[in-house]
Amino acid sequence: MQKQSLLYEGKAKKIYQTDDKQVYWVEYLDQATALNGLKKDSITGKGTLNNQITSAIFQELRKNKIESHFVEMISKTEQLIEAVTMFPLEVVVRNITAGSFAKRFGKEEGALLAFPVIEFYYKNDVLDDPMMNEDHIKVLEIATERQILEIKQQALQVNTALLALFAKADIRLVDFKLEFGQRADGTILLADEISPDTCRLWDATTNEHLDKDIYRRDLGDLIPVYKEVLARLTK
Amino acid sequence: MQKQSLLYEGKAKKIYQTDDKQVYWVEYLDQATALNGLKKDSITGKGTLNNQITSAIFQELRKNKIESHFVEMISKTEQLIEAVTMFPLEVVVRNITAGSFAKRFGKEEGALLAFPVIEFYYKNDVLDDPMMNEDHIKVLEIATERQILEIKQQALQVNTALLALFAKADIRLVDFKLEFGQRADGTILLADEISPDTCRLWDATTNEHLDKDIYRRDLGDLIPVYKEVLARLTK
Prior knowledge:
The structure is a homodimer. By secondary structure, chain A is of the alpha+beta class.
């Protein structure tokens, strides 16, 4: 497998084409951003940790019959993924009130929601990733009604599997963000990453943050926390 | 019918109880507000016009078998309405791109949407009326899935009737906001007002604003414009 031209540079990873059209090469970077990129820092070791955590989680999901774009980890900071066409959507699943949900609706953080709440955001830095509803997704031709339904169903299956996985690691899965892509045949596939960058994770006993809120809210050093998450997931 | 204690004071109307528990007494005020109340002015004659326009529209909807809380107009600034328990929701229906939709998704104003788009906002001044999706409405126990479906169906029926009504008046119905209430028996009923304060109306030929954007965007004197809308609707 040969790494070829850079296809996409995100806030925390780079994606390259390879000599196999079906496969992309991902490099996890030592970068942390928050506030849609307004806050930005280089944090040595973060790329390695997120690559390992994401790989471990996608492997665990596969054991639970939840497919994803993950092919294999090829170095501490790199993995191979299936080449899919991404929906420009961030799919957020919430189990417990926190973050923008708490702020938007004037709620305290930490309350268990009666059911997992799904939100969609339009992935668009210029527009600051605005929240959107299903009519918006359809009228802007981002996804069809059937695709939205499929994405929601997959997101809820991922939630069920992740809740169990994190519970075994003594971690409460508060909320998380997923992204989905499409194979050439139209199959919808879980993609992107699942890590403390994209999940809000609280220690099951102390409710301490085990996620990027450490960085967003200036609560301390991110690396030992991400190491702790990896250690608990792979213990 | 006796007017009794003040029940609610909104940005542009006051609602009183009456000696009949089933009936409220509404007084339309000469007030205009925008930017969630940050911009506020007294405009002589506005209350009279909105009371007459809303009354004319609710009467026209009734002819189209669309019920509402409207009972009767009892003076130039007052009407009687059925006492219902309001859902704290603003239900926006959009036919053409404009306003916050255009801004949120980086679109030009004036493009016809492929289908009428419905949006929900949580009616809460302190929180600045945040947009919400159907999961939010359910999890915050504002309405059930069945009630949301009923509200959406009624909103689309109102849209169909209003599109025809305004077309006859040479007006394009760009978008509008509805509110709904509930009778004691659970019936969901169209409520609040339908006026140039709550609709975005463009002249069918010139696309000139015939609505509160005149005030929001400082485009001139609001009164002759609202008079024009009333004249066209009742011609």
